[in-house]
């Protein structure tokens, strides 16, 4: 995937699976490769495994997750440049597990605080974090 992305909108449950060596790169008008706006209803499953997400564009996010009832798992992936972003309420009724990933120069300031159902710091190799 180059200079494109996926935006989840509307009602109903949704699922995004990205893996098997997929490369996501560049930038797009939405400012995120994977995005869910706060108006989207239903649950959303995000599964990122064995993929590389790469951007050097200012303000570009690997993901920007809004709404509620998100169930996010990212393992064994590489994130280069850009930022990681999720609203404070994105994982109410869901969870976030971001572990065993490599991050190179990624801005993590857009992530919610860790809690019992939100884990994103331990188990990652974080190199040259932007923040």
TrEMBL record:
| Domain of life the protein comes from | Bacteria
Tell me what this protein is called.
Uncharacterized protein
Q: Which organism is it from?
A: Paenibacillus mendelii
Lineage, opening ranks: Bacteria, Bacillati, Bacillota, Bacilli, Bacillales
């Amino acid at each position: 995937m180059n200079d494109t992305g996926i935006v989840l909108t509307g009602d109903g449950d949704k699922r995004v699976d990205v893996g098997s060596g997929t490369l996501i790169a560049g930038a797009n008008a939405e400012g995120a490769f994977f995005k869910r706006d706060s108006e989207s209803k239903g649950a959303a499953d995000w599964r990122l495994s064995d993929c590389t997400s790469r951007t050097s564009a200012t303000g570009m996010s690997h993901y920007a997750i809004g709404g509620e009832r998100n169930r996010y798992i990212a393992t064994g992936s590489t994130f280069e440049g850009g930022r990681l972003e999720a609203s404070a309420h994105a994982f109410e009724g869901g969870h976030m597990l971001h572990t065993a990933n490599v991050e190179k120069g990624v801005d993590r300031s857009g992530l919610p605080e860790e809690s019992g159902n939100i884990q994103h710091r331990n188990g990652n190799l974080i190199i040259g974090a932007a923040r």
